[in-house]
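Cross-posted from the bioinformatics board.
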Amino acid sequence: MMVTLSLIGIGSGDPRQLTQQAIDAIGELDIALVLDKGSDSSELRLLREELLRRFGRSSLRVVRLPDPPRAASGEYLARVAAWHEQRAERWEEVLREQLSPQQTAGILVWGDPAFYDSTIRIAQTIQQRGVVPLEVKVIPGISSIQLLAAGHQIALNQLNGTIHITTGRRLRDEGLPEGVDEAVVMLDGQCSFLQLATPDSEIFWGACLGSADEQLIHGRVAEVGERIREVRDKLRERKGWVMDIYLLRQKAQS
Amino acid sequence: MMVTLSLIGIGSGDPRQLTQQAIDAIGELDIALVLDKGSDSSELRLLREELLRRFGRSSLRVVRLPDPPRAASGEYLARVAAWHEQRAERWEEVLREQLSPQQTAGILVWGDPAFYDSTIRIAQTIQQRGVVPLEVKVIPGISSIQLLAAGHQIALNQLNGTIHITTGRRLRDEGLPEGVDEAVVMLDGQCSFLQLATPDSEIFWGACLGSADEQLIHGRVAEVGERIREVRDKLRERKGWVMDIYLLRQKAQS
């Protein structure tokens, strides 16, 4: 019994940001798995459910899956791996019990499944376990990286330059590699740019990109850094969550 | 007289890969600028013209702009800058002569304007020249980077890892930064992975992504590198052009 799991990138969740390929993929689903993260606000849940209502079949079943809690202590990579394994087991159970052969389940992924998302890894874990023969399909979506660049109207690379994408955790722990003086930073809950900026550092920051709450701030960190922190704090206070991202250029351009 | 220039990411050119936002943006255009690069095959021109026919207004005017030739000699960055300036002058002339105030011109950009594309820079040059007051809009599109990851069903980052994107030229000239052992490589006409691979290097390669000619090859460079070169050569011979991209992991994963 082969079943299909579609991992569908949905960008910011604005229906206008979906590709026709993503819309078609939602229309082919028999079951949609909706991961119920504790951190998900009702706003994010409602956006996904609206997409499923709008583009899904009338017979589409929505299965909510409470996300296993992450262990609070232990080595970071080991904790993440254990958490992936637990998720894989829960998804596998739904695929095994609720899908008939040839049917298709799907997961809507914020942004693009290729950038800092665990969905592909979990699907591969299920494939490797071999309990449920699984075909995986990946549909790209517009990532927050792209929304950041479009919002600020910038190319992410300098002429003949590189694009380096990292996380707040990694930036704090290891800094930027030798010879790399700018980076797109994701998943930084601590405004690390305030600690790491040089006097000339330039930042292109964005939060809630692609939504009605979108905020964009650009300037030297020395001048706009504290304002970014304030705007970020207010958004989080009002909404209960905030997703932000920034491009940090350690040498401001002339 | 303020006019608008929309830079619209169209992904691989497959209409199913456009977002609704991109489709709407095409529908708002009064003029579409089609850059006529010598290297563009009729296949690429036809794809763009098909999108304009399908999603543009019936009154949409299509203006073909022959691209200025790039100087063959001189320092690389200076040559590119001069070429951008020439392009800006040609676009500006069309915007000034053929658009009425409040009208909108647009350019369809392969992939996403944020990744290794000169369109945003040229639009900013026009803004800085100040001859034509210009509002710029950027609409993200699905980039080949994302199609590569989706095709191979991989996340581009390792757990807590970075994503490094570079060009063939840069990779040959400078290698990878210290501490970076994998990179997405674009614009590599010379199959540089064959020179730079270590015995364990792993490659995820793709060409003509998102089209009927799509090719995907994955494996150790030592095992699949020559085959990639052959497939690439055949595609270029048959089509007159080839666009390819790859993720090179210098330490193969277990």
